[in-house]
Amino acid sequence: MFKRTIIASAVLLATSTAWAASTGNQATVNQAQSGNTATINQVVGSVDNKANIDQAGNDNTAVTTQKNTGQSDADTRQVGDRNRGYILQQGDTNLSKASIDTKGNDNFADVIQQFENGGAVAGVVQDGESNDAKIKQDNGDGADSMITQISDGNQAVINNQISDFARASVQQLEGGAHKADVTQTAADGANAEVVQRGESNITKVLQATGNYDYAPAEGTSAVVTQSGSLNNADVTQYDSANVATVEQSGTGGKVVTLQQGSDAGEGNHLLAKQSGSSEFAELKQDGNRNRIETDQQGTGNDALINQTGDDNKAVVNQLASSTDGAVTIEQVGNDNYANAVQQAGSGNTIDIDQNGTGNQVASARDGEGKGAWTWGSDNELVVAQKGTDNWAYADASHSESVVKVSQDGELNNAKVESYLGSENKLTVTQNGAEHEANVYVNAGVGGGRNTVDVVQNESFNTANVTVLGSDNRAYVYQGSGSN
User: Which of 251, 359, 379, 477 could form a disulfide with 396, with the two C-beta atoms 3.0–4.6 Å apart?
Assistant: First the structure.
């Protein structure tokens, strides 16, 4: 066996130097046990090639081909049985390096670097068993890709194409059966990083920013971190300078993000954080300088945000023991702001729809209170604003409260609140211009069955309603042309 290994090495060395035009070639093969196969080809126009294959177990396969590969370097090490590793560096792959390191059994790794890859570096490390890793870098300039899989049954794919400053790193650690797919096409300054712990998590990242010849500081980035089991993250980014961060822990959570429509240096930002079970968040942004921040904790919470325009921001926060809550925010236009919080309860729903410029539901940006809020259980809160310079504050605290605010026109202002008690219902509807409505319900000890309705149409209307105690009802209507 030792003789056969020496002969194989000699033949490979002879072969590599026999194919014209190459300089500085070196090939080394070490094989132990039986049934192993190793092939090294270094050919035509190569400059400073090196290739090492070291296989220790049985029935392993390693193939290295380096053609017009500049400062190329390839290294394959396999310990265990039935492992397969392929490295192909082709074309003028400047300063190329490719390395495959495998220890367990039945692992598969395939690294391809083709055509003018600049400072390309690719690496695969698989420690467990039955892992599958594929890296492909085409015209990647400063591309750098790394896959590390320690547990068993993981699958990872990295594909950087005309990928300029792209960098992709996938780590799938303890647990196993994870899947990660990172695709970056014509991605200029694109950056992607995936870390998965636990079991059976899935991450898909697509960054297709076009090829706009932006500098490395262009800023596109996607980072996904998942722990727990059966979580799913799908991140898609088009155009430039978009940044997405997804963090999931728990079981069965799902995050879907889409960011697009941004100019150079004017990208969108989003942060998605989920813990608990069966949570779902769909976050979409189209425009410039939009931001989304989410927090979800508990069971079965939903958050769906769709923003179109520039300088919009939506913040969703479902924490404490909130379960079965749902938040839906849709903003169209520029400079809209929304904030939604659900805590310490279950069955809550918040629905915010803003259309126009300068709408706010607070709190932050320009302040003015909570900006939609439910506390307790079985609450419902709906806010719809159209026009410009609208402002809404809403609070459905404690159980069985319903708050609805609808403003259509401009310069409207509504502040609605229920605070404590139960079975409260508050409704404010304003159409026209220059409206203002303030409603406050307390219903302290013992609660109450309070109902407040305020409807204001046309202009110059003002309404203030304060309800305390129980069994109260207040109704205010101000019609066309009233004060």
Answer: 379
Quote the pLDDT of residue 464.
94
In this prediction, residue 174 carries a pLDDT of 86
Q: Of the candidates 275, 307, 273, which has an alpha carbon nearest to the alpha carbon of residue 291? A: 307
Question: Which residues have C-beta within 8 Å of that of residue 339, sequence separation ≥ 6?
Answer: 314, 315, 317, 361, 362, 363, 364, 370, 371, 372
DSSP bridge partners of 415: 393, 438
pLDDT for the residue 483: 47
Cα torsion 58, 61, 62, 67: sign = positive
φ/ψ (deg, to 5) at 153? 70, 25
Tally of CA atoms within 13 A in the half-sphere of 202 that contains its CB = 9
Residues of the chain with pLDDT under 50: 1-20, 482-483
- Position 406 scores a pLDDT of 94
- Whole-angstrom Cα distance, residue 319 to residue 311? 26
pLDDT in tens, 430-482: 998 788 999 988 877 777 788 999 999 887 889 999 988 888 889 999 887 54
